[in-house]
Amino acid sequence: MAKRSSLYIRIVEGKNLPAKDITGSSDPYCIVKVDNEPIIRTATVWKTLCPFWGEEYQVHLPPTFHAVAFYVMDEDALSRDDVIGKVCLTRDTIASHPKGFSGWAHLTEVDPDEEVQGEIHLRLEVWPGARACRLRCSVLEARDLAPKDRNGTSDPFVRVRYKGRTRETSIVKKSCYPRWNETFEFELQEGAMEALCVEAWDWDLVSRNDFLGKVVIDVQRLRVVQQEEGWFRLQPDQSKSRRHDEGNLGSLQLEVRLRDETVLPSSYYQPLVHLLCHEVKLGMQGPGQLIPLIEETTSTECRQDVATNLLKLFLGQGLAKDFLDLLFQLELSRTSETNTLFRSNSLASKSMESFLKVAGMQYLHGVLGPIINKVFEEKKYVELDPSKVEVKDVGCSGLHRPQTEAEVLEQSAQTLRAHLGALLSALSRSVRACPAVVRATFRQLFRRVRERFPGAQHENVPFIAVTSFLCLRFFSPAIMSPKLFHLRERHADARTSRTLLLLAKAVQNVGNMDTPASRAKEAWMEPLQPTVRQGVAQLKDFITKLVDIEEKDELDLQRTLSLQAPPVKEGPLFIHRTKGKGPLMSSSFKKLYFSLTTEALSFAKTPSSKAGLELPTSGDPPSSASQNAGITCKSALIKLANIRAAEKVEEKSFGGSHVMQVIYTDDAGRPQTAYLQCKCVNELNQWLSALRKVSINNTGLLGSYHPGVFRGDKWSCCHQKEKTGQGCDKTRSRVTLQEWNDPLDHDLEAQLIYRHLLGVEAMLWERHRELSGGAEAGTVPTSPGKVPEDSLARLLRVLQDLREAHSSSPAGSPPSEPNCLLELQT
Asked: What is the pLDDT of residues 814-823, one digit of tens each?
């Protein structure tokens, strides 16, 4: 069993931000930090004081995280980015909102005394002396301290205070991972109520020392336990922090939801999984009808989550098509008007949206990617609405006169017709590229709708049913917001956004089969009608081919694809090496193309290159898990089973940010380390997340590592002189980002479905009483009654069994912090 925590984060928008640029505006973006660790960076929204991001993320974390902070920054091209303000939410604050925190929060000023991070390792003892008890405080080491100096490090020392006496450790230069191993003693007096205060500081020669954090120890409770040793989290100095005037720095609209789950072993979930799978296999002919009951008891606000959990569960069981087919039948059975079919936010619509994102995202990228990239690169001014045309934005068509409005409209129509034609042509050629399970699902949808609405008057209805998902709920949203579908790293500027919006509208018209109703909405879209009509014919031909592929062909294609290891993540990275034992300023780097599959991390000179490269080597032979920045490997891959850790590297190590290290063993069992540089913090965290997820079950994973490199005769992070010594920082293998291509976690999905059913259990009991003739709530019949009652009764019994399993699980208790006995509120 395992305790898992995840944070759902949606950064919606900001308002009334202060102007940081001389133009009277700002270029805001957000950095999200969990316990001072940068996890997410939003796109920059240029030249605005009221930015809209609309970006959402899900982060998996250890249950013991403390806080999540949102920093609003102003991007500057020629200097360091300005900090506008921040919003900080503690874990307790988020947990106090069962449905999540949602709303506007005022930005507050960033106070240096509050920007603390890291932990300090202390050994505390109370022992009897000749005259009085003695208090002994051993300051051993610290890790992950805040870098306060321009070189990316600090010069930390520790100040220990008790009853007016102050003792200080030595100063460790240029390290955020210092080691002191110094001990101080104080005389204790009976009845004394004073606490022991341990403060970490960054020493500065010409300016005041910077505060790094503190720990306050309750000496009276320490008397009881006599001794304690462990890592203590550094806390801010609340007594010195200033009160901030909220409102002057603007506000941030956020949605943050914390989910803690205790996931039991697979065997506990098998009854629930088998019951749900049995219902799906029986379909509309089945006796239980549990899926309709789940839909009926699911509120609108959580329907998307439930749909995604169910979809992933059945996808893992090979029943995604059957599950969606059941939902199609349910939707069709209650729909009498064809123009409302699959237009509501039903469980069928939400499940199909999730299905396309999970199973069809790579296909979407293949079809849409080139067209979206072209729109971004051209940056043409495009407008079809005469009331919105701004001739001045277009420039001159020749040397002597500006373009007229008619010329602008015609040129815009030509541009959009070209983009729409290219998209439809790419879609028409993509029948075989569409994933087999997606084709099979669309084929079943097409057949079900044709059976429900036969006749010539409904000839287009099956096609519209397919396009309502493919075009209206998948392609069009991706065109309008390419960053949210991972098609681009940045949001589009205003000009590009307008082009994408008009293109998305055109795709919607094609998806609606060019109905009179869709044409009447915006008459100024008329110049695109010839291409739209042609597109309708192309789309119908595409769907006809898509649904005509036989089951045998699908199975053959699935077998072929199963033999290949699809990439989990791929892209260019820079690989670093050092020259012998020289300083890191002499390090060099080389750009290679990396591909991570479920089997290995491989690399080549170009995406089309074949394996066979030799990684650069260092001057020293490898001898430890965290060694010199060199790699000796005769094949162009790192086997996943050999990976021991994937972690970040200190910025100072290579004079640049966004560097990660992959610690692994080669074929001879010798430890090696690869240093790879990403282009931004998001890419860095995506690579770390992907590497951690695919190697999570490896044996021999490291519990600690060195965030620096071994230079000369010592580690740059902690100054240890032994290469093979234990790492100075803990690994973070449990910090990952949820992606659309994540491997399925069957137990977690089953747990989430159980958690939802537990929330609607009262409604399930009410239905049970109706079906069983008023049976008392909480009494599940042990013998079958009516057929529909039996499935519901079994479900309620399964929920009872899972509740009992959770109540007896040691992991069911809230996570505890080490050394909480000794820490006081500051």
From this structure: 444 444 344 4
